[in-house]
């Protein structure tokens, strides 16, 4: 975000959506062109059920967003954090996709510093999810491996927030057929941890289950158009190891300098919202969060500083016209 942009109050109209639903007088399902620092102030209190966003990383995308020096990042983001705290519902979640960069040979602490600053504003740092990027970009450095993961930090206003865990359960897999066929005596009782951690398991409880709850590590398959897929296949035998010992993904560019796959916001939208809820992305980019929200039957508000990305989001959103629930359903659960 830059002081150069005087941020006109412009909304990008979507095709066939003239009778747009509202909360009070605030219209939903809009891409707003301008500085989020200004436009967030116009959003009502306790408005959004979920904020999912990926702001410009420190010293990244300079040609797109101007770049923010790592030493200045916390001060730059603080006003956004204050406004997001206000517009999020008491039962909502704020998920921040971010990654610290290397400066002078070591990881800068601006992400850790930002977590502390947000906590001082009143946010609770509730959880951290890891997005493993299966097709991270190739490269080799003398003192580290390729970067294959990014943080997805969850912040909430309260300890009691809406979370729909059943919506993201995953198949248990074929291993259960052989493993659960013949249970030992130990399997039929709670087997306590041998290191006195307080954890234990009872294998018998898995009988008859087809789905399990996931971990906080997200596995997102590459999108078919991702040009790095074939490159990864060709280099698979000779690749240097990554700094993550699991596989996940990254998406194609989509004409944006920092696009993420639609499956990433979709996973959090499923986890933290229900049909008819409101999803807010103050750094919308090419519209991926809004597209995911619409596809899943949620309302959205997106704010984007670059006019060309607003237009790109508008064009992509024109392809999705799902039915939404009545406006009254977004005023609470």
Describe this structure in words.
The protein starts with 9 loop residues before the first strand and ends in a 16-residue tail after the last helix. The strands form five sheets. The protein has a nine-stranded mixed sheet. A two-stranded antiparallel sheet has the order 2-3. The chain is of the alpha/beta class and 333 residues long. It has nine helices and 17 strands. The chain has two domains: 24-169 and 213-322, Vaccinia Virus protein VP39 (Rossmann fold, 3-Layer(aba) Sandwich); 173-212, no CATH class. A hairpin with a 7-residue loop joins strand 12 and strand 13 (200-201).
Which helices and strands appear, and what pairs or packs with what?
Blueprint: E1 10-12, E2 22-23, E3 26-27, E4 30-33, H1 36-39, E5 48-53, H2 62-65, H3 73-87, E6 88-98, E7 102-103, E8 106-107, H4 110-121, E9 124-132, E10 149-156, E11 170-171, H5 175-179, E12 191-192, E13 200-201, E14 211-212, E15 217-219, H6 228-235, H7 263-272, E16 278-281, H8 288-295, E17 299-304, H9 307-317
Parallel strand pairs: 4-17, 5-6, 5-16, 9-15, 16-17
Antiparallel strand pairs: 1-4, 2-3, 6-10, 7-8, 9-10, 11-14, 12-13
Largest sheet: 9 strands, mixed
Named at the architecture level, the CATH assignment of the largest domain is 3-Layer(aba) Sandwich
The string of secondary-structure elements, in order, is EEEEHEHHEEEHEEEHEEEEHHEHEH
**What is the count of β-strands?**
17
Overall tally of structural domains: 2
> What's the average pLDDT?
76
User: Can you say what the CATH homologous superfamily of the largest domain is?
Assistant: Vaccinia Virus protein VP39
End-to-end CA span: 34 Å
Structural class: alpha/beta
**CATH class descriptor of the largest domain:** Alpha Beta
Shape: globular
Number of helices: 9
> Within the largest sheet, what's the order of strands?
1-4-17-16-5-6-10-9-15
Helix percent band: 10-25%
What percentage of the residues does DSSP assign to strands (E)? 15-25%
Q: Uncertain regions: pLDDT < 50 for 5+ in a row?
A: 1-18, 224-258, 321-333
Q: Give the CATH topology of the largest domain.
A: Rossmann fold
């Amino acid at each position: 975000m830059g002081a150069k942009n005087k941020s006109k109050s412009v909304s990008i109209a979507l095709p066939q959506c003239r009778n747009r639903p509202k909360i009070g007088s605030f219209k939903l399902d809009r891409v707003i062109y301008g500085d989020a620092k200004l436009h967030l102030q116009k959003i009502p209190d306790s408005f959004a059920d979920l904020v999912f966003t990926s702001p410009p990383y420190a010293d990244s995308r300079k040609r797109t967003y101007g770049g923010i020096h790592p030493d200045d990042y916390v001060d730059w983001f603080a006003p956004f954090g204050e406004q997001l705290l206000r517009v999020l519902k008491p039962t909502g979640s704020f998920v921040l996709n971010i990654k610290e960069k290397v400066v002078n040979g070591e990881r800068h602490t601006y992400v850790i510093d930002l977590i502390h600053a947000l906590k001082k504003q009143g946010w609770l740092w509730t959880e951290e999810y890891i997005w493993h990027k299966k097709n991270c970009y190739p490269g080799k450095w003398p003192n580290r491996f390729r970067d294959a993961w990014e943080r997805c930090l969850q912040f909430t206003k309260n300890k009691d927030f809406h979370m729909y865990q059943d919506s993201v359960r995953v198949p248990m897999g074929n291993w259960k057929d052989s493993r659960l066929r013949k249970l030992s005596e130990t399997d039929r009782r709670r087997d306590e941890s041998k290191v006195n951690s307080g954890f234990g398991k009872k294998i018998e409880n898995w009988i008859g289950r087809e789905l399990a709850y996931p971990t906080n590590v997200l596995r997102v398959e590459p999108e078919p158009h991702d040009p790095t897929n074939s490159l990864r296949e060709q280099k698979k035998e000779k690749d240097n190891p990554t700094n993550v010992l699991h596989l996940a993904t990254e998406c194609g560019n989509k004409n944006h300098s920092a696009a993420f796959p639609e499956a990433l916001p979709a996973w959090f939208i499923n986890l933290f919202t229900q049909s008819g809820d409101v999803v807010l992305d103050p750094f919308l980019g090419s519209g991926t969060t809004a597209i995911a929200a619409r596809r899943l039957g949620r309302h959205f508000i997106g704010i984007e500083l670059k006019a060309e990305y607003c237009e790109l989001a508008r064009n992509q959103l024109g392809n999705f016209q799902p039915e939404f629930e009545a406006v009254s359903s977004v005023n609470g659960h």
